[in-house]
């Protein structure tokens, strides 16, 4: 359950930060801290289950979009939620500045321990 606006914004910040994390071991630790062991991320093209697949997913995204393409992910700053759910938008844009390349929407359902149990991703563009 989300207990405060500060806790909600902190979770959104940690979520977005993991996609920009260059250090593999910190990325792995962040996966364990953010998602439950049995978590699932649902995307339009596929689903990933559990910490290892989530780590591989985040790493593949980092390698492609951050390391290769020079982009960065950031929160739009519109996170809100109640009970055990939260939603927010994120953007991907060139780290050096420029036009937004992609916009996404996340809908998260948290477990009893406050970590993500179900993660639904929608790509707006």
What are the defining features of this structure?
single chain, 125 residues, alpha+beta, Nuclear Transport Factor 2, Chain: A, seven-stranded mixed β-sheet, 3 helices, 35% helix, 37% strand
Query: What is the CATH architecture term?
Result: Roll
Poorly predicted segments: none
Number of domains: 1
Strand tally is: 7
Q: Structural class, from secondary structure content? A: alpha+beta
Tell me the helix content. Answer: 25-40%
How many helices?
A: 3
Radius of gyration: 14 Å
Layout: helices, strands, pairs:
Blueprint: H1 5-18, H2 24-34, E1 35-42, E2 47-49, H3 50-68, E3 71-75, E4 80-82, E5 85-94, E6 102-110, E7 116-123
Can you walk me through this structure?
By secondary structure, the protein is an alpha+beta fold. The chain has one domain: Nuclear Transport Factor 2, Chain: A, CATH 3.10.450. Helix content is 35%, strand content 37%. It has three helices and seven strands; from the N terminus they run H-H-E-E-H-E-E-E-E-E. Strands 1, 2, 3, 4, 5, 6 and 7 form a seven-stranded mixed beta sheet that branches. The protein is globular and about 40 Å long. The N and C termini lie far apart (30 Å).
Short structural description:
With 125 residues, the chain is an alpha+beta fold. It contains three helices and seven strands. It has helices at residues 5-18, 24-34, 50-68, and strands at 35-42, 47-49, 71-75, 80-82, 85-94, 102-110, 116-123.
